[in-house]
Amino acid sequence: MAEFDLNALDEVIHGKLRLGLMAFLSGVDHASFAELKAQTGASDGNLSVHLRKLEEAGYVLVEKSFIGRKPHTTAKLTAEGRKAWIDYLDQLKRLLGP
What we know:
The chain is α+β, with helices and mostly antiparallel strands. The chain is about 55% helix and about 20% strand. The protein has a three-stranded antiparallel beta sheet.
């Protein structure tokens, strides 16, 4: 049996909202801020804070632009983020056991 190590879980991903963001972004090429807000039910401020934490870890690339005069923000997983996501899922499987 694999060693049970709860501390091996990536704390950047493990937060509820960040976990949801990583899960959603893992299944799409990119998502707009509005899509992420609708999928997670997060407030603008909360979503911004958690996206920034994932961005600072190098897991998510956030791009800001304007469409006309309206700001438009998109996010997508980086290669490092996709690897971290897969590693996180693998660690969860090890914790769950056979």
